[in-house]
Specification:
By secondary structure, the protein is an alpha/beta fold. It has 4 domains: about 80 residues, 2-Layer Sandwich (Gyrase A, domain 2), CATH 3.30.1360.70; about 160 residues, Rossmann fold (3-Layer(aba) Sandwich); about 90 residues, no CATH class; about 160 residues, Orthogonal Bundle (Isoleucyl-tRNA Synthetase, Domain 1), CATH 1.10.730. About 55% of the residues lie in helices and about 10% in strands. The protein has 21 helices and 13 strands. The mean pLDDT is about 95. It binds arginine. Arginine binds next to helix 12 and strand 10. It is an enzyme of class 6 (ligase).
C-alpha cells in the first residue's frame, strides 16, 4: 500500500480541475499528531500562479479533491496547508488486506537488474570491523531489493590480487617447506601477515624473493598460482565463517574477486588507448579528467597502468563495470565501501561513461559509509590498539548476550538459551550499525546496543516475542488471524497508518540504499504497538469477542511486519526470549 502515491494521484486530479497541469504535488507525512496523517503543502506555490491567497487555493483544492473514500476530513491550517486525516474504516480495510497477504500487501516493483558489490574483504588480512559495515549494510539492501522484486546480482569484489601477495606467498612457501599445511599456517591470517611483513622489512633477501613471486604470479607461473590458490582457499573459508555467524546471504558463488578480471585488463587498456581516451605519460597510461580539475584548472589524473606495466585497483574496477554492465546487463550498480573511496568511484564512473562502458541508462551508485568509532571517538581498536577481528567481535557479542540473559533469570534450557543469545547478540551488533545513518561515523557501544530499551535489536525482538506471547495466551494462531478489524481510537489509527507505511519505507530505502530508514520505521512501529497495547487491552475480561478479534488482528499484522522488517535487516526473531 502506497498511501502517499495514492494521495498524490487524487490531488493531481484536483489541481487539474483548477486548470493547472503538471504542478508539483507535495504530499508528505505529517510530523505532528495534530496535523493529520499526511499533509499537502502545494497551495502556497499555486497561489502565486493563480493570483489568489494560499488559503483560498487550499479551499478550492479541498472542495475539488475526491478522497472521501479514504479520508474522513481535510482541514486547512496555517498559511494554506491541507491536513489529511485518513478514515478509520479505510485504514481498517487496508489492514485486513495486508493481513490476508503473505507479502503484507507490498507489491512488487518493475524488476530492475541490480548489481550489488559489497563485503569485498582483502584476503591478505583477516576480516575486520571495516568490512562489517559493508557486509551488513549491503546485505540488508540486497534483501529489500529482492523483496521488492528486483533481480539482484551479488558481487563480492574480494581483494585477492596485488603486490602484497608476493610477500605472503614467499612466506607461505617457506612454511609449507617446513611441513606445515596451509590451513595451519594460515589459521591466523593477521599473525601470518604480520610475520611476512616483518620478514619483508628486515630479512636479507626476502623482499627480493617476494618481488620475484609477484612477477611469477602475474606471469601465470603454475607453481606460484597453486600456492596462491591455497592461500585464497583458506582465506575465503575464514570469511565464509564470518558470513555464517553474521547471517548474511553471501555465498561462494558470489565471489568475483579482483583476480577474476586479470585477463580483461590488457585489452581494456588497449581499448582506452586506441580510442584516445587514455594516453601515455612518462611510461604510465592514464586518463585525464578535466571534470575534476583542481583550483588551478589542472585535470585529475586517473592511472590505469603503471610505468612498470602493473595494473591498479582502478583498472580492475573499470573491467568490473564492463563485465557487469556489458555481460551481466546491470541497469543499476551499488557499491558499498567506506567514504574514503568516494573520489575513486567518482573518477571511475566518469572514465567508464567516457568509454561507454556505462551508458546513460545505467546508474552507478557508490554508497559510502562512515567509520566505526570506539567510545573515545577514535577509530575502533582493541584495548592494545590493534585492529578488531570481526570474528572475535561477534563471539564477544554472543558472550555478552549470554550474560545479559542469564541476569534476567529466565527458565530456558541450555540449548534454547544459546540460540537466544546468538540471535540477540548478533542482532544487536548488526542493528546498532544498520540503525545509524550510513554516511556518518558512529560510536560502537556494547551497553547501548544490548539494551532492551531504545532503538535496538533487543527492544524489537522483545516487542515481537511479547506479541507472540499474547497469542499463546489467547490460544490463537498469529499467522491465520483474519478477523474483521474495527479501529476505535487514535492510538489504533496511529498504529494502522504506520503499518501501512511499510511499503513506502522500503521503496525509499531501496532508492537511497539506506537501511537505517527501516530501523527507524520498525522502532516507531514497535513503540506505537506498545502504546496501542496499553490503551487497547486484548486479553482482559471486559473486552468483547469482536473487539478482541479485531485487536488480535492488528497485533498479528504488527508482529508480521516487525518480523518481515527485521528479516530484511538479516536479523532473526524468536518465539520466546
Ligand atoms: N577490497 C576493497 C576494500 O577493502 C573494497 C572493494 C569494493 N569494490 C570495488 N569494486 N572496488 O577496500
Amino acid at each position: 500500500m502506497l498511501i502517499q502515491a495514492l494521495l498524490v494521484e487524487r490531488f493531481t486530479q484536483a489541481v487539474k480541475k483548477l486548470g493547472v497541469e503538471n504542478a508539483p504535488i507535495p504530499i508528505s507525512k505529517s510530523t505532528k499528531a495534530g496535523f493529520g496523517d499526511y499533509q499537502f503543502n502545494g497551495a502556497m506555490a499555486l497561489a502565486k500562479q493563480l493570483k489568489k491567497s494560499p488559503r483560498d487555493i487550499a479551499q478550492l483544492i479541498v472542495d475539488a479533491v475526491d478522497i472521501s473514500d479514504l479520508a474522513e476530513n481535510c482541514e486547512i491550517a496555517g498559511p494554506g496547508f491541507i491536513n489529511i486525516h485518513l478514515s478509520k474504516s479505510w485504514l481498517a480495510a487496508q489492514l485486513m488486506l495486508a493481513n490476508a497477504d503473505l507479502r503484507l500487501n507490498v507489491s512488487k516493483q518493475k524488476s530492475e537488474k541490480v548489481v550489488v558489490d559489497y563485503s569485498a574483504p582483502n584476503l591478505a588480512k583477516e576480516m575486520h570491523v571495516g568490512h562489517l559495515r559493508s557486509t551488513i549494510i549491503g546485505d540488508a539492501v540486497v534483501r529489500v531489493l529482492e523483496f521488492l522484486g528486483h533481480d539482484v546480482l551479488r558481487q563480492n569484489h574480494m581483494g585477492d590480487w596485488g603486490t602484497q601477495f608476493g610477500m605472503l606467498l614467499a612466506h607461505l612457501s617457506d612454511k609449507l617447506a617446513d611441513n606445515q599445511v596451509a590451513s595451519t599456517a594460515l589459521s591466523d591470517l593477521e599473525d601470518f601477515y604480520r610475520e611476512a611483513k616483518i620478514r619483508f622489512d628486515n630479512e636479507e633477501g626476502f623482499a627480493d624473493r617476494a618481488r620475484e613471486y609477484v612477477v611469477k604470479l602475474q606471469g601465470g607461473d603454475q607453481q606460484c598460482l597453486a600456492l596462491w590458490e591455497q592461500f585464497i582457499q583458506v582465506s575465503v573459508s575464514h570469511s565464509e565463517e564470518v558470513y555464517k555467524k553474521l547471517n548474511v546471504t553471501l555465498k561462494n558463488e558470489h565471489i568475483m574477486g579482483e583476480s577474476a578480471y586479470n585477463d580483461d585488463l590488457t585489452p581494456l587498456v588497449d581499448d582506452l588507448m586506441a580510442r584516445g581516451i587514455a594516453q601515455e605519460d612518462q611510461g604510465a597510461k592514464l586518463v585525464f579528467i578535466p571534470e575534476l580539475a583542481d583550483k588551478e584548472g589542472k585535470p585529475a589524473v586517473y592511472i590505469i597502468q603503471k610505468s612498470g606495466g602493473g595494473y591498479l585497483y582502478s583498472t580492475t574496477d573499470l573491467a568490473a563495470i564492463r563485465h557487469r554492465c556489458g555481460n551481466l546487463g546491470a541497469q543499476r550498480t551499488l557499491i558499498f565501501t567506506d567514504a574514503r573511496q568516494a573520489l575513486h568511484f567518482k573518477q571511475t564512473e566518469i572514465v567508464a561513461r567516457k568509454a561507454g562502458y556505462l551508458t546513460s541508462e545505467q546508474s552507478y551508485q557508490h554508497c559510502p559509509f562512515g567509520m566505526m568509532l570506539g567510545k573515545d571517538g577514535k577509530p575502533f581498536k582493541t584495548r592494545t590498539g590493534g585492529t578488531v577481528k570481526l570474528a572475535d567481535l561477534l563471539d564477544e557479542a554472543v558472550d555478552r548476550a549470554t550474560s545479559l540473559l542469564a541476569s534476567r533469570d529466565l527458565s530456558h534450557n541450555e540449548s534454547a538459551l544459546a540460540n537466544i543469545a546468538k540471535t540477540v547478540g548478533i542482532g544487536a551488533v548488526k542493528y546498532a550499525d544498520l540503525s545509524k545513518n550510513r554516511t556518518t561515523d558512529y560510536v560502537f557501544d556494547w551497553d547501548a546496543m544490548l539494551s532492551f530499551e531504545g532503538n535496538t535489536a533487543p527492544y524489537l525482538q522483545y516487542a515481537y516475542t511479547r506479541i507472540r506471547s499474547i497469542f499463546r495466551k489467547a490460544k490463537v494462531d498469529l499467522e491465520s488471524q483474519s478477523a474483521e478489524i474495527v479501529i476505535s481510537n487514535d492510538n489504533e489509527s496511529a498504529l494502522a497508518v504506520k503499518l501501512l507505511q511499510f511499503e513506502e519505507t522500503l521503496i525509499v530505502l531501496a532508492k537511497e540504499a539506506s537501511p537505517h530508514l527501516l530501523c527507524t520505521y520498525l522502532y516507531e512501529l514497535a513503540s506505537l504497538f506498545m502504546r496501542f497495547y496499553e490503551s487497547s487491552p486484548i486479553l482482559k475480561d471486559e473486552v468483547t469477542a469482536e473487539i478482541k478479534a479485531s485487536r488480535l488482528s492488528i497485533a498479528a499484522l504488527s508482529a508480521k511486519t516487525i518480523k518481515q522488517g527485521l528479516s530484511m535487516l538479516g536479523i532473526d526473531t524468536l518465539e520466546q526470549m
